[in-house]
Amino acid sequence: MNKHVLIVSPIPSHPQFQGNSARIFRLNRMFQLCGYQVHFLYFGMEGLSEEQRKAMEQQWDYFYFVQPEGPAAEPSFGEYFDIDDWYDDRVSDYVDGLCQKWNFDVCVANYVWFSKVLDVLPDTTQKVIDTHDVFGDRHIVAKEAGLEPVWFYTTKELEAYALDRADLILAIQNEEKAYFECISKKRVEVMGYVVPFQPLVVQKHSKVVIGYIGSGNPFNVESLRVFQQEVMAKPELMQQFTFLLGGTVCKAFDEMNEIFDIIGLVDDLDDFYRRIDIAINPMVGGTGLKIKSLEALSYGKALLATEDAMVGIPSNDAYHKAKSITEMVGSLAALSNARYELLLKNSKDVFDQYNGEHISNFKTLFG
């Protein structure tokens, strides 16, 4: 007898050009690989092209779509959002209808701020929140980093209230598991980002190519600005390396760019990673799991990163966990052929260990 899982998400699973879409796609695929029929309900906060619709209809066993009636609401409390400000009760009505037809073994609500849907599920369905990130006091964290808060942010008290709607809370890394356990009595387990190992044959280059691909969020832009500043302080690096930038961050960073060859949006991630030798993630601050770090490792790339970019991804290689962007650029300047080969090997080992652990976690949780 088939098992059925209902995945409810305000973010599409296709294309996977940003971390949250990639996370949703991979978790859905793991359910499929474990024998579940996947019902994917997308509340179209990011729109829906015909190409996206076809891709999701082909990928998932069942695809449902609820069209928003307008833009996302402004914060109810001025300084922060009420936990359900971005929720639409028509999603609950739609899911209530689906429950009349299907017996769902599991329902996964993507994001704590979309957890209200769990209230309409019967007790026979395991109710899960895939948190993706911490949203309690997110606006305070951003302001402390000198950035304007963007997207969704609320209080710890409201986040705790929403978590209590679930039977199981999925944290994307251990630090966030500890946080959720502090504010909720519900069961919390870590479920990381699992993606197949897919090494690529690299094109031959006259200079070693350093690459970064990401979205245009303020944390990414600021991290790149500081990285560029540190590289320009060591002009010899411009002679030794080529720097390549891809993704929606290109538009946000374009006016301040001085070192990167910009390629913009990438239709196929394989094409980007085929063009680079070393991936970088100079992230400072931010929350969640840095999926771009795991993505680079999955393509068999040597990775240079800060410790913030590797939270939740254990490694003993110092080049994976620089304490600052200054230290990270110093590692790049000191990179010999032998050290590059060691970094390449260690990057693969880190990925293999991480993937094995989280595949095992998923099977324990969902069979």
Shape: globular
Strand content: 15-25%
Provide a count of the helices: 13
Radius of gyration: 21 Å
**Mean pLDDT, nearest integer?**
93
- Helical fraction equals 25-40%
Instruction: Give the number of DSSP strands.
Output: 12
Order of helices and strands: EHEHEHEEHHEHEEHHEHEHEHEHH
Low-confidence stretches: none
Structural class call reads: alpha/beta
Distance between the termini: 14 Å
**Largest sheet descriptor:** 7 strands, parallel
How would you characterize this protein structure?
The longest helix is centred in the C-terminal third of the chain and has 30 residues, at 337-366. By secondary structure, the protein is of the alpha/beta class. The chain has helices spanning 19-33, 50-59, 89-101, 138-144, 156-163, 174-183, 218-232, 236-240, 249-253, 269-274, 291-298, 325-333, 337-366, and strands at 3-9, 36-43, 62-66, 106-110, 126-130, 168-171, 187-190, 208-213, 241-246, 260-264, 278-281, 302-305. The chain is globular. The strands form two sheets. The chain has a seven-stranded parallel beta sheet with strand order 3-2-1-4-5-6-7, sandwiched between helices.
